[in-house]
Amino acid sequence: MTSVEMGIPEMPAPDYPAEVRERLEAEARAIIARYPDSRSALLPMLHLVQSEEGHVTRTGQRFCAEMLELTTAEVNAVATFYTMYRRKPSGDYQVGVCTNTLCAVMGGDAIYASLREHLGVGDGETTEDGKITLEHVECNAACDFAPVVMVNWEFFDNQTPESARALVDELRAGREVTPTRGAPLCTFKETARVLAGFPDERPGAVEASGSAGPASLAGLRLAKGESTPGVVAPRDAASDEEGK
Amino acid sequence: MTTVAPHDGEQDGTSPQPERGSADPQKLLTPVLSAHWDEPDSYTLAGYRRHGGYRALPKALAMDPDDLIAYVKDAGLRGRGGAGFPTGMKWQFIPQGDGKPHYLVVNADESEPGTCKDIPLLFANPHSLIEGIVIACHAIRSNHAFIYLRGEVVPVLRRLHEAVREAYEAGYLGPDALGPGKGLELTVHAGAGAYICGEETALLDSLEGRRGQPRLRPPFPAVAGLYACPTVVNNVESIASVPALVDRGKDWFRSLALGSEKSPGFTLYSLSGHVARPGQYEAPLGITLRQLLDMSGGMRPGHRLKFWTPGGSSTPLLTDEHLDVPLDYEGVGNAGSMLGTKALQCFDETTCVVRAVTRWTEFYAHESCGKCTPCREGTYWLVQLMRDIEAGKASSADLDKIADIADNINGKSFCALGDGAASPIFSSLKYFRDEYEAHLAGRGCPFDPEKSTAWADGPSSAHLEVNA
Questions:
Q1: Does ipTM come in above 0.85?
Q2: Superfamily of domain A93-195 in the CATH hierarchy
Q3: Which region ranges are annotated with the description Disordered (chain B) (predicted)?
């Protein structure tokens, strides 16, 4: 996507195969129906086309433009503004290490460096087996669980370089991985479908990992007299208490 | 009812600082939104209803919308998303009888570095938001509400999808939700990764399917918001606080204030960083960081507080001088910062403030939407200079230069993102200029980042008892 084309304009992107197009059209119409104005459907529709091909292709952008009566330039302007839309083929699992200040200081920088070395990839790059794309991400609203790693936008709280390396090894080995908060991991494409507004139909996905993580309950437990003020519980034991 | 009894705010508000280590959490904390998060089904409709959920709704629907707005205004509820604007007043600005659709848009784009309250709230108690939305839509005469949730939190999105489905099934949403023939639709909309979309007008552009860039004001969203129609944009916690306020009454709500009378009510404080026990602490506005640290075990063992943010990285840094500042809009404002989102990021003496500010500056440069020049260019140049300063490759003139650039961003940008980018620069230079100079004199960073990590003191250190 970074290559600059000079001279002859690019040919229009090819369309989806007919059966794919038919399925996506029905889903796009369901998305459009949620809004008083069809253009509001563009962000969820970009998630939808991302769930089809794993990234936002020119074909996907053309599809969005046709469905919403926009130009492909208008769609491209939006698709390139938001960081969650990928512009090139990537792995099944997007591993994002928070390196905003608080997580970075608490160990996010060390985790990120360790994963880069362990996986042998740089920022935004994908392992050769096509399993993992490594990224650093910005603050993901889980600072009381720092340092945090997100995989396909599910929470892996209180990570260390060791736990993060073990995590990516499990993913590459194809074993089922369960986040600290969130549902057992599905692929990036399946995640993108939930983001398009189609509920996760897997049994137990909504219930998975309980009501709240341990840190979310810190104040409540104090208020109820269930933990002693001034005495610090070990971090890892705290998660056992919650029956996680 | 496991909720702690409403606290006698007057007594504590006028008493001197509690003795160190004597803070009684059972008296100071007031879990309302978080009161039942420890129950396994707190996020379900059944779990919410078991503790009085949706009890405020019929009471609110029986009120005249204008009376409801006046009630919320009298209670003194102020926006919990950062700016602290009175919620009832925002609702009152919506023109009535204008023949246009009205919209309520809930800002669930929680992305301000350090801020982590709305995400656990929505994960554990999404129905408090939905009940609040129905009440607010009655007040502003809206028949369509939106929740704009940042995209990067799929576990929360799942629970919102399910909670909205349950609410439709139970008739709290859908046809006749607001009375016979008065329906209410609620759409959950996932964003796609852009901090700027937390700015309310950028959020509206994003929700309209555009690049999330702020709009010129006026016109304000109350007049021309979503689809150029009157729109209220409220933070998650503001709206989620409304049901409890209506249920228990404005006098109860007003009684919850440890600081200024102008800042009443319960709210979520988020402790993070080098503290012994990070997490969510729901307390009346006006509690102090000292009280929160005293009750929760203080900083991690053997370390002391160096600097902290009262409400995310866009609020100027404070130091251990400010431990007794009441954490309400007035108290933190008087201390030269802003209450913001009550994201109390606490850093101890192992942390390099120049490194912290450099990273935040990189964040603002990355998230600058590019619409206005001071922010787009200014944050870029701040990053170049901060990286040089951190690496000890800069001169002392560069310290004046970053202050000058920050001054050219602050108040001169299109929206508050620029002001936020300037805050860490100004405040860190104010309190820690010597540390900047140490980087220059020593030709590098004098800190060992390994010492700041969560595992620096070994996994067993946290077993120790702490004298907070």
A1: yes
A2: Glutaredoxin (3.40.30.10)
A3: 1-26
